[in-house]
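Dear colleagues,

As part of the handover before I leave the project, I'm documenting each prediction I ran so the next person doesn't have to rerun anything. This entry is a single chain, and its sequence is reproduced below.
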Amino acid sequence: MKPTSLAKVTRLAALAAGVLALSSCISVLPDAPPASARYLVTDVSVTESRAPVAWTLGVEEPDATLAFNTAKIALSREPARIEYYAGGEWVDRAPRLLGAALVRSFENTGVVKGVGSRVTLPISTFALQTDIRRLTITSLGGAQTADVAIFARLTNGRSLVHASKLFTAQEPVAADNAGAAAAALNAGLEKVQRELVVWTLDEADRAASAPKS
């Protein structure tokens, strides 16, 4: 065999050995785990027969403690203790999702033409401030329940509070997993949104028509 041919065969053999070694290394690596599911907070449609209002509404991002100011889905198996589901979470922090859903829910009424977040609508007649008190799956005594509690204030965006109210909802949970938990919590949030939208419209109309002092 000619020297050049021998060198060529040697290089090909070395290349084949390198490819084989690389493929062997790759084959022993564990497969990447599947991405966790992500869940949304959906807006609602509230049919209102009233005429479009002249006032505007700024919806502030809801307040929440660190327990609920997260994308994780909360679970409480005993009082004053919070855990989180594995295998799924909200697509964003829960307060941000609820704030965006509320804006869309008010838009869906067709009554409030000027509504938006405090970023998109920094100056408005009224401001809706909310606080997530509870947004968790409660698992006590074997039964699981989605527990939602939202405190709302209608203000002038400064120090004047026109009205305030606590809204609550409880929904059964179909199974002990993140998907069923998110579905039940979203159903509770939809119920709260329907009540909160109607309450806000009523209280804002009342405040707008009150005699100016």
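Confidence is low (pLDDT under 50) at residues 18-27. The CA atoms of residues 48 and 208 lie 18 Å apart.

All the best with the project,
I.
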